[in-house]
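STRUCTURE:
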């Protein structure tokens, strides 16, 4: 056997049709899947990133930026939709990669998805804690900093962040149907608030605020003009992250071949329309320059403050001051649903990896009553809670973005490979214009990755090297398809060894470049990267020469 052995499609379909003890319960219809997607997508991105991107990059043309970003997501979404209808198994991009590019690539993407789901959930829970504190301040309830921030942010522990992770995890253990019902309620709440903002704000739109629609470039690339619109598209792209999480629930969909494309593309379409209308109203009720210097939800607050009529002195008195509090409440609900879908997606990815033998069996144990991976949920509840309680959001936030983009690239590559290798395999949905759509998806996502900071690349490489370690010392021995055979172990030493050696050298190079750019301000990251890379380079060399 080989490290690049592919999982047979017939076996995956048979796995998807399993019922009874040890299998996941099919309870999700098309609208529940759409709600899951909306729950994962709409978060603080809509309420904060929109104003920041308008103020600093695009001006009123932020609506165009949302359309450009949506096109980039649509390329990946179309590829996800075909895979989800063709291989309706929990695991998302991990399972798709296993069927098209082999086990080692599948391991890489499965390990990478931890950055999107588990680390992403921790990041969102930290922000949820901050918004909860802001919401309670409106009722004169002030939470102490020592209990709402980690030790690196002036506190001791972030208890509200831990609380939301625990509550959502317990809900997921209770059952997918119950989780989906709660998610649907939350989605209804936050979409309702968004619609109220759009409807009430529309009557206060001043067309003069749209002139010029695309402000002239300041002379700096990315600050207004055409380059600014595209730069803003890269910024708001991350407000769309989450639609792919729908694919992790494929094994719990009632009719996955029909419903999964509806869930993925439907949620993306709904959110795109809401984003464009929201941005249009926000930049219409006041000038985009009003949003400069604001952070968090402040851009939305500024827009609401301009929804009123001026008095004799020219001061505007808002007609709907209560809307600010409703927006914060919607953000709290939005964050909670994002955490729910992210934790659900993470447990389902590790469920599939465990079923394949690449991870310990504990991750695929299903609760006899609830038919959910309860032990996996509990383990991630502990892990994510620790991150949320003590680690600053800035450390893990950017890792979520780069991990997601990397996953999108591999899914687009996988569809292209699948069409070449298995053109006649049955599909419930077909991605149009292959290979053009996958190529555009790859190019768009790599473009986004290339503009991320170098320290984000350093963290990604370190994370992937850790994943190589686990695969080399556990996964390759226990894999149900390739594990335990002398030929496979020998090839594993070579393939993983050379791959790990390449990453180690790349880490050293990037560390030196980043150290130079920051003028030595990254001392800890620099020396950690050098030591980590040197140790692993030696280990991989020993693996390569091992007979």
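SEQUENCE:
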């Amino acid at each position: 056997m080989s490290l690049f052995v592919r999982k047979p499609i017939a076996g995956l379909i048979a796995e998807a049709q399993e019922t009874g003890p040890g299998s996941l319960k099919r309870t999700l219809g098309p609208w529940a899947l759409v709600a899951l997607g909306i729950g994962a997508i709409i978060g603080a991105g809509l309420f904060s990133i929109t104003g920041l991107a308008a103020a600093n990059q695009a001006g009123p043309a932020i609506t165009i930026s949302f359309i450009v970003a949506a096109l980039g997501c649509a390329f990946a979404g179309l590829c996800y939709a075909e895979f989800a209808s063709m291989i309706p198994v929990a695991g998302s991009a991990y399972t798709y990669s296993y069927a098209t590019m082999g086990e080692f690539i599948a391991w890489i993407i499965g390990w990478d998805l931890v950055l999107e789901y588990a680390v992403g959930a921790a990041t969102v829970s930290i922000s949820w804690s901050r918004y909860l504190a802001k919401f309670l301040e409106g009722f004169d309830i002030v939470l102490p900093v020592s209990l709402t921030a980690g030790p690196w942010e002036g506190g001791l522990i972030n208890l509200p962040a831990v609380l939301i992770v625990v509550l959502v995890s317990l809900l997921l253990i209770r059952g997918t149907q119950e989780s989906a019902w709660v998610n649907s309620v939350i989605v209804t709440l936050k979409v309702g608030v968004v619609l109220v903002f759009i409807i009430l704000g529309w009557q206060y739109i001043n067309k003069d605020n749209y002139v010029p629609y695309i402000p002239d470039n300041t002379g700096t690339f990315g600050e207004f003009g055409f380059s600014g619109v595209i730069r803003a598209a890269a910024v708001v792209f991350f407000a769309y992250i989450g639609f792919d999480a729908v694919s992790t629930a494929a094994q719990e969909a009632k009719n996955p071949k029909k419903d999964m494309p509806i869930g993925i593309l439907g949620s993306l379409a709904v959110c795109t329309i809401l984003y464009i209308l929201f941005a249009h109203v926000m930049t219409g009720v006041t000038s985009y320059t009003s949003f400069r210097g604001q952070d968090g939800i402040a851009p939305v607050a500024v827009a609401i403050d301009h929804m009123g009529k001026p008095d004799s002195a020219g001061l505007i008195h808002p007609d709907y001051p209560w809307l600010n509090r409703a927006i914060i409440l919607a953000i709290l609900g939005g964050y909670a649903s994002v955490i729910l879908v992210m934790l659900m997606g993470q447990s389902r990815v590790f469920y599939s990896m465990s079923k394949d033998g690449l991870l310990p069996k504990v991750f695929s144990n299903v609760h006899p009553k609830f038919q959910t991976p309860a032990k996996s949920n509990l383990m991630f509840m502990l892990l994510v809670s620790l991150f949320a309680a003590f680690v600053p959001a800035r450390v893990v936030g950017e890792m979520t973005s780069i991990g997601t983009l990397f996953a999108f690239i591999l899914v687009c590559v996988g569809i292209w490979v699948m069409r070449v290798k298995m053109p006649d395999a049955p599909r419930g949905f077909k991605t149009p214009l292959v290979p053009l759509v996958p190529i555009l998806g790859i190019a768009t996502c790599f473009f986004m990755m290339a503009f991320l900071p170098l320290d984000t690349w350093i963290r990604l490489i370190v994370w992937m090297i850790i994943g190589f370690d686990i695969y080399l010392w556990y996964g390759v021995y226990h894999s149900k398809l390739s594990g335990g055979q002398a030929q496979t172990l020998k090839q594993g030493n070579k393939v993983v060894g050379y791959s790990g050696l390449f990453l180690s050298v790349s880490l050293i190079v990037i560390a030196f470049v980043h150290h130079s750019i920051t003028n030595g301000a990254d001392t800890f990251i620099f020396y950690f990267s050098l030591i980590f890379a040197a140790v692993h380079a030696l280990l991989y060399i020993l693996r390569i020469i091992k007979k």
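REMARK: Strands lie at 308-310, 316-318.
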